[in-house]
Write a structure and sequence with these properties.
It comes from Virgibacillus litoralis. InterPro entries: YfkD (IPR025548). This is YfkD-like protein. Helix content is about 25%, strand content about 45%. It has helices at about 1-35, 65-70, 80-90, 165-180; strands spanning about 40-45, 100-135, 140-145, 150-155, 155, 185-190, 195-200, 205-230, 235-255, 255-265.
C-alpha cells in the first residue's frame, strides 16, 4: 500500500513540477522563432547602392553613484539621457552639513518604456516593381530584382507624446533587444540596387516581382515622472513624484532588408 502511494506521489510530482517547465521551454523557442527572417526576405546590405549608417544607440552605463541612486527607487529608470545627466551631476553636500535639507528639481522625464507587443510587417512599404513579359515567348526566362528609384523608408511614433526623441531611443533599444534585428528609424534603398535571386517566367506568362521594405510595429507604455535630487545632511537620494503612464506605438524599419512577392499571370 505504501509503495502504491509512493508511486502515485511520484507521478503527481512529474506532472505538476516538470511539465510546466517543458511547456515554458517550448513557448520561449516559439517566441524566438517569431522574429526569424522568412526565406522571401533578403539582406541587401552588400548590394545596396546607398550605404546606410548603422543606428547604434549609445548604451549609457550608470556610474557608481547613479546606480546607487536609481537602485533605491521603486520605479525603473532606463532613459539613457536621464542616466547620462545623473552621471554628470556633481552635487556634493558637505559632510558637516548637519540639519541641511534641500530638493533640486531636475525636470519631468520619461523614465522607462515597457514593451507590450512587438510584431513584424514584412510588407510595410512598397518600394519597387519589376515586370517581365514572356507572353509571346517560347522558352522560360529569368527575371531579377532591380531597384528603379531611390527609396527612403521612414519610421515614426504612431501618436503624439512629450519628449519623443527620448522615447524613440528607449523603444529602439527594447525592440533591438527583443528581435535581434538591424532596426533604424530611417533606411534608404539606393537606385539600381540589384540582387542575384532569380525568378522563372515560363513561356506564355507574365512575371510580376514586387519589393517591400519590412518594419517592426512596437507597442507599449511609457512611464513619466518629476525627478528631484534630495539632500538631507550629507546624504543624497532621488525622489520621483507625480508618476503617469501613457500608451505609445512606433513603426521601426528593418534596415537593408527587402521582402519579395513574385506572381505569374
Amino acid at each position: 500500500m505504501k509503495k502504491r502511494n509512493y508511486i502515485t506521489a511520484l507521478i503527481i510530482f512529474v506532472f505538476v513540477f516538470l511539465l510546466p517547465f517543458n511547456s515554458l521551454g517550448k513557448e520561449e523557442k516559439k517566441s524566438e522563432k517569431e522574429y526569424d527572417i522568412p526565406s522571401h526576405v533578403l539582406n541587401i546590405s552588400k548590394e545596396n547602392t546607398f550605404p546606410n549608417s548603422t543606428e547604434d544607440q549609445e548604451v549609457v552605463e550608470p556610474s557608481g553613484l547613479t546606480k546607487d541612486l536609481i537602485d533605491e527607487l521603486d520605479i525603473p529608470v532606463e532613459n539613457p539621457d536621464l542616466i547620462k545627466m545623473l552621471n554628470e551631476t556633481s552635487i556634493k553636500p558637505s559632510p558637516i552639513a548637519f540639519g541641511y535639507r534641500g530638493m533640486v528639481y531636475l525636470g519631468r522625464w520619461p523614465l522607462n518604456y515597457k514593451s507590450d507587443e512587438t510584431n513584424i510587417n514584412w510588407e510595410y512599404q512598397k518600394i519597387n516593381a519589376n515586370e517581365l513579359n514572356n507572353i509571346g515567348g517560347e522558352s522560360n526566362q529569368e527575371m531579377h530584382y532591380t531597384q528603379k528609384e531611390k527609396k527612403e523608408i521612414q519610421g515614426a511614433l504612431t501618436n503624439k507624446i512629450t519628449d519623443p526623441d527620448d522615447i524613440k531611443k528607449m523603444m529602439l533599444l527594447k525592440s533591438k533587444e527583443r528581435t535581434k534585428l538591424p532596426l533604424s528609424y530611417s533606411t534608404i534603398i539606393g537606385k539600381d540596387t540589384k540582387k542575384e535571386n532569380s525568378y522563372n517566367v515560363p513561356a506564355k506568362k507574365y512575371g510580376h516581382l514586387q519589393a517591400y521594405a519590412p518594419a517592426i510595429n512596437e507597442k507599449g507604455q511609457v512611464t513619466f515622472g518629476e525627478v528631484y535630487f534630495r539632500l538631507k545632511g550629507s546624504n543624497k537620494s532621488l525622489v520621483i513624484k507625480n508618476v503617469t503612464k501613457q500608451g505609445i506605438g512606433a513603426w521601426i524599419p528593418i534596415q537593408d532588408h527587402v521582402s519579395f512577392s513574385f506572381q505569374l499571370r
